[in-house]
Specification:
Blueprint (H helix, E strand, L loop, with lengths): L2 E7 L11 E8 L2 H8 L7 E3 L6 E2 L4 E8 L4 E7 L2 E7 L4 H10 L24 E2 L2 E2 H4 E8 L4 E6 L20 E11 L11 H7 L5 H15 L7 E2 L8 E2 L1 H10 L5 E3 L5 E3 L1 H7 L6 E2 L2 E3 L7 E3 L5 H19 L8 E2 L1
Parallel strand pairs: 2-5, 3-5, 4-20
Antiparallel strand pairs: 1-2, 6-7, 7-12, 8-9, 10-11, 10-12, 13-19, 14-16, 15-16, 17-18, 18-19
This protein binds uridine-diphosphate-2(N-acetylglucosaminyl) butyric acid.
Length: 335
């Protein structure tokens, strides 16, 4: 059912919980709802708002926010040990992970507890602990607003990269993702090589799907603040990628600096480590701060505005630039 709201408060619709209003907001369940919504023409300013976990409003939004709310999860196909699951855009990502783990289906357990909705997962290609949504997404279904038509893209055409996809590029502002298809496996395929994962899994009695999920949830709960308690959007910055030469130059001065060589020759650095080294971890400025256990996360300590969070973000970027000569881009969308 299509439900429309006018001049609606967004503070409980984003994980930063900053005060802002939207001129219009529409919750849509079906493609017919989308058709009805855009029947009178495409508004000058509109965008999709999913769980609001990766967005910072620095002022009121004068356009239309479209919120997909359909929440079905269903098995579409089974071929050998491969099970393809259809997931509506409005499903909470972690509900999908719990659903898969309960059915002994492997592939997304390392993505446990990532806040957000399934429809948003392909947009920034969510990732954690050595796994990305793009590794398991087989297809993405969407409604094209300008042409009033439906489009399905295979994963190969989604342009998945580190926190990147075609939905952030050429298709930005043109489509509403309605459903994704996720390919899971009945054959165990544990990925434990990232950080403390293996140790935490062993501590729980060994490699089972359930233990991996529990281990990942526990690691995340230790490092990342709960958005219900303290407004935040997970990693505020992306890990920067620099050239091999640049990484070697930095390592001369900072021999302990974490470096992750990429297949294309670039080197990914840890933005959290870089920020930590500037001394800003745990820093507070009025109602905003840098989280004390994970420097990548900026937090609303209570009642902050989006502009205050943004000012802190600029300060953090400047500190990293000054100390390392490295630019760190924001992962969060800033409006
Ligand atoms: N580090 C520090 N200080 C900090 C944070 C990190 O020294 O305050 C160091 C760590 O010790 C480690 C390195 O930096 O050597 C990397 O840290 P970590 O393994 O915790 O991961 P990350 O690079 O900080 C990324 C994702 C997270 C994801 C984790 C686990 C990005 C921007 N962030 O963080 O994703 O959960 O890996 O896979 O890629 C998110 O996107 O919202 C998010 C939380």
């Amino acid at each position: 059912m299509l439900q429309e709201f006018q001049r609606i408060d967004l503070s409980d619709r984003t994980s930063f919980h900053v005060g802002a209003r939207a001129a219009r907001l529409a919750e849509v369940e079906t493609v017919d709802d989308l058709r009805a919504l855009f029947a009178g023409g495409v508004p000058g300013q509109w965008m999709v708002l999913a769980g609001g976990n990766n967005i910072l409003f620095t002022h009121d939004y004068e356009g239309l926010l479209v919120v997909p709310v359909a929440r079905r999860i269903e098995v579409l196909r089974e071929t050998g040990d491969r099970v393809t699951v259809g997931v509506d855009a409005g499903v909470e990502w972690d509900d999908l992970v719990a659903w898969a783990v309960d059915r002994e289906l492997w592939g997304i357990e390392n993505l446990s507890l990532i806040p957000g909705r399934a429809g948003a997962a392909p947009v920034q290609n969510i990732g954690a602990y050595g796994c990305e949504a793009g590794d398991v997404i087989e297809r993405v279904h969407m409604y094209c607003v300008e042409s009033d038509s439906l489009l399905t893209l295979d994963a190969a055409h989604c342009g998945f990269g580190y926190r990147e996809s075609v939905f952030k590029g050429a298709l930005r502002g043109r489509v509403v993702i309605t459903r994704i298809e996720v390919g899971l496996s009945r054959t165990p395929q544990p990925r434990l090589c990232y950080g403390d994962v293996e140790r935490e899994v062993e501590a729980r009695g060994g490699v089972t799907l359930h233990n991996i999920r529990e281990a990942i949830c526990s690691i995340r709960r230790t490092k990342l603040p709960d958005t219900a308690v303290m407004g935040n959007a997970g990693s505020f910055f992306k890990n920067p990628v620099v050239s091999e030469t640049e990484a070697a130059r930095l390592r001369m001065t900072f021999p302990d600096m974490p470096c992750y060589p990429l297949a294309d020759g670039g080197v990914k650095l840890a933005a959290g480590w870089l920020i930590d080294q500037t001394g800003l971890k745990g820093y507070r400025d009025g109602r905003v701060g840098v989280h004390e256990r994970q420097a990548l996360v900026l937090v609303n300590l209570g009642g902050a505005t989006g502009a205050e969070v943004l000012a802190l973000a600029r300060k953090v970027q400047a500190a990293v630039r000054e100390k390392f000569g490295v630019e760190i881009d924001t992962e969060v969308n800033i409006l």
